[in-house]
Every structure is written in structure tokens, then in C-alpha cells.
Amino acid sequence: WTIYEREAGYHVEEFLEKHKSDMDIVLIFSGLFSAVSTAFIVALQSELSPDEAQMTNALLKLLIHTLDNTTFNGQQPDLPQWNGPGATEIWIQCLMYASLSTSLIAALGAVLGKQWLGHFTRCGRGPIDIRGRLRQQKMDGLQTWHFSAVLEALPLLIQVSLLLFGIGLGASIWMQQPTIAAPVVLTMAFGALFYGAIVVSCIVSPTCPFQTATSTILRFALQNINR
Predict the structure, then answer these.
(1) Residue 161 and residue 155: Cα distance in Å, rounded?
(2) Fewer C-beta within 10 Å: the chain N or C terminus?
């Protein structure tokens, strides 16, 4: 049991160092990204309601026409008609809110992950054989419940959140000015192709150094399918 305690301690230390650093990265990035996406969502809220400046100008024209009907060459000013946001604006908002929600779920998962890791390290007090058996039971539980795969999926949520945000951002800028949106769309397309090439390379060659959570999950799924 002394040898087991020493060897298991090395494994546990490496296991905790890897996953705790991953959870810290997810927490920090999800917090910063949520703040950025929230700022964009607030800026886009005006597209879901009538233009207040346009309505104010129309009311002022109507008031001036009421006082002097010759001001606008006898033409009756009309109030602007608004039939609600268009389908494109709604889809852009859906993508933005989905991006924010995904990053918040990733943050929740990271918080829970740190709690799960804390529970794993606690083996209580008592004789070394009892603590060794308890630790081994917990390690077996990690394998049974695919604990590492669950934690490695959290960075994938951040990546999905970035993808949704990028699509929404590109569509929003494209509606306003396609020329400005072109470099944004091209940059995101290059990033998506580069990421896809990395994932495929990691699936084809397990020794590829550019491992990601996506490639790990896909390789695990393919291995289970081929069994």
C-alpha cells in the first residue's frame, strides 16, 4: 500500500494539475467573453424596437405642420410604420444570445468541475489501506463515468460560443456595410478552416501535437463505433 500510495500520488498530481489549469482557463475566458458578448447584445437591442430618433423627428414635423400647414408644401407628414424586426435581425439576436448562454454554461461547468476535483482529492483519514481503497474506488469511478471526457468538453463549449458569436457578428456587420464585413467574414472563414484542418489531422494521427477537445471526443466516438 505504501508503493501504491506513492505511485497513485504521482498520477493524481498530474491529473489534478491538468484539469485544474483547464478549468481556470475556461472560467477566466468565459467571464471575459461573456462581458464582450453582452456589450454587443446591448448595442444590437436597438434593432428590435422602433427607431426613437426617427419617431421623434416625425412627431416634430407633425407638430410643425399642425402649427403651419404650409411648412412642408402642404404635404401631410406621416408617422413611420414599424412592423417589428426582420427575420435576419431576429436570427442574429438568437445567435448572440445562444453564444452568451453557451459561455455561461461553460463557466458553470468549470465551477462544478473544480468542486468535483476537490471531492476527488479528499480521501479522509485512517489507515493507509482504507485510504488506498477509497482512492482506487474514486479512480475507477472516473473511468466508469468518463470524467475526463466531460471536463475536456467544457473548452469545446467555449469554442462553440466563439463560433456562434462570430457568425452573428459577421451577419450584423454585413447588413450594415458589406465592404467592412468582408475582412471579418474572410478572417472567420480562415479560422474555421484552420481549426477543421487541425481536428482532422489529430484524428488521423494521434501523435499530432495540435490536440483539441473536439479531436479527442471525435476520436473516442470513432473508436467506440469501430468496436
Answers:
(1) 10
(2) C
